[in-house]
Amino acid sequence: MSEVLENKDVKKIYIDARGPRFSASATTIVLASALVTHNKWVLVAQGLVFLIGATRGPQFTPYGLLFKKFVKPRLKAIAPTEDVRPPKFAQAVGFGFALVGSIGSFAGVDVVFTVATGFALAAAFLNAAFNYCLGCEMYLLLVRFTKK
Amino acid sequence: MKSYAPLLIVLALASAYGFWWERKQGAIRSNKAIPGHRLSPDVLGQPLGSRATMVQFSSAFCTPCRATHSLLSQMVIPMNDVKHIQIDAESHLELVRELDIRSTPTTLFINKDGVEVGRAAGTPKREQVLSALAAIN
User: Which of A17, A46, A82, B8 is the most buried (most CB within 10 A)?
Assistant: First the structure.
């Protein structure tokens, strides 16, 4: 019945579920400072972090590495795990916003920078504060509209 | 030029949305059923439970789908008249559109005739599931 969910060919990678939430907190702080200072380079840097998270996986971003090296050893050893695909999807959405915002900023359209950074910040904040799952809420709507 | 206004607006709106979203997570609602729609064993690929079936729509990019799956599949083990069926939403888009499933996990509670009596978006609590199932006869 569930061809994709039970597909044995899809290599399943599970990561410490606390990592993406730590990364979301770091992302929230970085994007908030980008929004306040109106500094496009901060957004570009965060965009590169998103790109690593979306392609290689959230555990390989600078925040993911910080978590692994400094935060994880201080937490309880028994860790809740999660599939790597949901946070990877969220990183890809974040990259989309960062890309649009950066292009807007370099083209001199400030409002695009502000709105795109605002949306990326909202998503990161919801993830950090409410454990909001972007893939759960957005992915199905996206395929409903784009696929026949 | 420093400005705190956009930051405050984003945080206020996101918080309001977050609290609303958190409150509706897992709540079982009975007013979302599509009138006249019936889920048949043909569509689901397996027979329905003799009293009730929980049809869980899941997707790959969804962390709570796994938790919901393990909760519901554990719960039905001692129940001989209730079944739990998981469906991959992405490969059943036609059904997803018919039933207006918008997010994953969404679990439909259907009776023995395949008629929806309630649905929950997000992971429902054990007690909520038990009371929803108790209301089906």
Answer: A46
